[in-house]
Amino acid sequence: MMERFYLIVSHVARLELLVPLGVKLVQLRIKDQPDTEIRRQITRARDFCAVHGAQLVVNDHWRAAIDLRCRFVHLGQEDMQTADFVALRTAGVRVGLSTHDEAELDRALSHDPAYVALGPVYPTLLKKMKWGPQGLERVAQWKKIAGQTPVVAIGGLTPDRLPGVFAAGADSAAVVTDIQMADDPEARTRTWLTACAS
Ligand SMILES: Cc1ncc(COP(=O)(O)OP(=O)(O)O)c(N)n1
Ligand SMILES: Cc1nc(C(=O)O)sc1CCOP(=O)(O)O
Ligand SMILES: [Mg+2]
């Protein structure tokens, strides 16, 4: 069973703040840092998640994930072009993949991923994307096509939007901005945990 709440953070310090609240699935999404810093944070996150019984997902940095004996990575379409899927499989690393249209979904499913992410379901402030909001019907369509492969919804999600997202068939809801920008990220994480549990 896929965890319904999927937290994404940009620094290990934020992971250490929020995981003890009961987060069981967390992605470390580090951008624009030197390799030594990336590996330092991944190592710290790996050990912290192990102690707290949380699953760490390493975004982008699949080679560091293999080297540092992490168990799960997330790759986008561009990351997929350079990733060594055989090396990842041999190392026992599970892979989650981003998708935005049917062709990407077909290609992603051919890699037998641990999940496929669909986004942006709603408008996102996090980054400029060529894709417009996908909407909930698209989540339902993804669920049908993906079959046994879990579907992660991402992009513009808030606790208020979760009932619709899960009713449409998403197995999990991923979030960056709503928690990253919250005045009280710990309180907001608790709100998400409650909303995902109901
Ligand atoms: C769960 C999840 N879904 C999608 C993404 C986006 O991945 P990608 O397209 O590679 O973009 P970046 O996050 O690397 O900017 C994700 N990270 N996690
Ligand atoms: C990082 C990312 N990837 C997306 C995709 O569609 O692949 S949407 C997205 C933004 C993350 O969501 P939020 O709006 O919660 O910041
Ligand atoms: Mg990426």
UniProtKB/TrEMBL annotation:
SUPFAM superfamilies: Thiamin phosphate synthase. GO terms for molecular function: metal ion binding; thiamine-phosphate diphosphorylase activity. GO terms for biological process: thiamine biosynthetic process; thiamine diphosphate biosynthetic process. It is an enzyme of class 2 (transferase). Its EC number is 2.5.1.3. It comes from the Bacteria. GO terms for cellular component: cytoplasm. Keywords: Magnesium, Metal-binding, Thiamine biosynthesis, Transferase. Its cofactor is Mg(2+). InterPro entries: Aldolase_TIM (IPR013785), ThiamineP_synth_sf (IPR036206), ThiamineP_synth_TenI (IPR022998), TMP_synthase (IPR034291). Residues 12-179 form the Thiamine phosphate synthase/TenI domain. Pathway: Cofactor biosynthesis; thiamine diphosphate biosynthesis; thiamine phosphate from 4-amino-2-methyl-5-diphosphomethylpyrimidine and 4-methyl-5-(2-phosphoethyl)-thiazole: step 1/1. Belongs to the thiamine-phosphate synthase family. PANTHER family: THIAMINE-PHOSPHATE PYROPHOSPHORYLASE, THIAMINE-PHOSPHATE SYNTHASE. This is Thiamine-phosphate synthase.
